[in-house]
Design a protein that fits this description.
Elements: E1 9-16, H1 22-32, E2 38-42, E3 63-65, E4 71-74, H2 79-91, E5 99-103, H3 111-119, H4 121-126, E6 127-137, H5 141-147, H6 149-157, E7 160-164, H7 171-184, E8 189-192, H8 211-217, E9 239-240, E10 260-267, H9 273-287, E11 291-298, E12 305-312, E13 315-323, E14 332-339, H10 343-352
Parallel strand pairs: 1-5, 1-6, 2-4, 2-5, 6-7, 7-8
Antiparallel strand pairs: 3-4, 9-10, 10-14, 11-12, 11-14, 12-13
Organism: Paenalcaligenes hominis
Function: Zinc chaperone that directly transfers zinc cofactor to target proteins, thereby activating them. Zinc is transferred from the CXCC motif in the GTPase domain to the zinc binding site in target proteins in a process requiring GTP hydrolysis.
Protein name: G3E family GTPase
């Protein structure tokens, strides 16, 4: 049974640095998102879990009903099993919820969580992965990025990045952190938040994994030249590195060499479809574990419409997008965000796939 996209249950993955305010944000969503019932899945009940006043049952239950009509459950076993259990209970009328939020631990890599929604057919036909939202602590963000590799992955996977505790740092310190985040992931929207006070519409129903929707909302989301982060205009024919080493920040701090970073491939020449498929299949096999998010628009020879392309780790997919309009110059724009990726291998390989 295939469910129409609008009937699928949207899922938000909420991740972020230890102590950055994930749980504060989650409590606010549960208490303020009135009229909608939410199922919250927590990796574990830590000391900083959901407010006791929201709980109406003992914590040794796997699924806990909250006093506001939402439910909360722990992943005691496998995330797939937990999601399927929720689905069965919902279909049987035992539980009522309209969306799912998965809160990961502060040390978690969101990758395996995201992959779950592409690997299991039962989950993929019922749940729609909407976005990864990452909460970053302005006060300790730089230090966390230096010391914890997983924190860079949390930023690399994000569709939205919320920076908390901005009031505890200077404008200069905040700007350095923001620029560092942009070098790691130039495609996520960055917003400063105060103790979870953010517009909930900014983090729910943003269709981060539905490329068609993203491009409808923001046609420039892959337009490197227009990205709002202090790059001057580039006239490169096909490649602008989002880690651009010419970051003209007016301070004496050298850019951090993070293991997670991004680069963009652009070309107005079309791809040979067979060569491109062979190349992408090969790099995903070799570098899949280190490829966090990759997405974009592909210009194929002989195709009158753009192909929309995206992937998480080794799960890669493409679908037809809008036709190229008469005035448009067809162009490929691909962004790759990953862990110690060999940029030159990707750039040269993609170049060789062009007609």
């Amino acid at each position: 049974m295939t469910i129409a996209l609008e009937k699928m249950v949207p899922v938000t993955v909420l991740t972020g640095f230890l102590g950055a305010g994930k749980t504060t944000l989650l409590k606010r969503i549960l208490s303020e998102y009135h009229g909608r019932r939410i199922a919250v899945i927590e990796n574990e009940f830590g000391p900083e879990n959901i407010d006791n006043e929201l709980l109406v049952q003992e914590q040794d239950e796997e699924i806990i009903e909250l006093s506001n009509g939402c439910i909360c459950c722990t992943v005691r076993g496998d995330l797939m099993r937990t999601l399927n259990d929720l689905r069965i209970k919902r279909e049987n009328g035992e539980l009522t919820f309209e969306r799912v939020i998965i809160e990961t631990t502060g040390m978690a890599n969101p990758g395996p969580v995201c992959q779950t929604f592409f690997m299991d057919d039962h989950i993929a036909e019922y749940y729609r992965l909407d976005a990864v939202v990452t909460v970053v602590d302005a006060k300790h963000g730089m230090d966390t990025l230096d010391k914890q590799d997983e924190s860079q992955k949390q930023i690399g996977f994000a569709d939205r990045i919320l920076i908390s505790k901005k009031d505890l740092v200077s404008d200069d310190e905040y700007e350095r952190l923001r620029k560092r985040i942009i070098r790691i992931n130039p495609r996520a929207t960055i917003t400063a938040v105060h103790f979870g006070e953010t517009d909930l519409k900014e983090i729910l129903d943003i269709s981060g994994f539905n490329l068609n929707a993203v491009l409808d909302i923001d046609p420039d989301f892959l337009a490197v030249d227009d990205a709002p982060h202090d790059h001057g205009h580039h006239d490169h024919d096909h490649a602008c590195d989002a880690t651009c080493d010419h970051d003209h920040a007016h301070h004496n701090h050298a850019p951090h060499q993070d293991s997670v970073s991004a680069f963009v491939f652009k070309s107005r020449r079309p791809f040979d479809p067979d060569r491109l498929e062979d190349f992408l299949s090969g790099v995903v096999q070799i570098y899949g574990p280190d490829l966090l998010r990759y997405k974009g628009i592909i210009y194929l020879k002989g195709a009158n419409r753009r192909m929309l392309f995206q992937g998480v780790h080794m799960m890669m997919g493409a679908e037809p997008g809008k036709p190229w309009l008469g005035k448009e110059k067809p162009e490929t724009k691909l962004v790759f965000i990953g862990h110690n990726l060999p940029k030159d291998v990707f750039m040269q390989g993609l170049e060789q796939c062009l007609v």
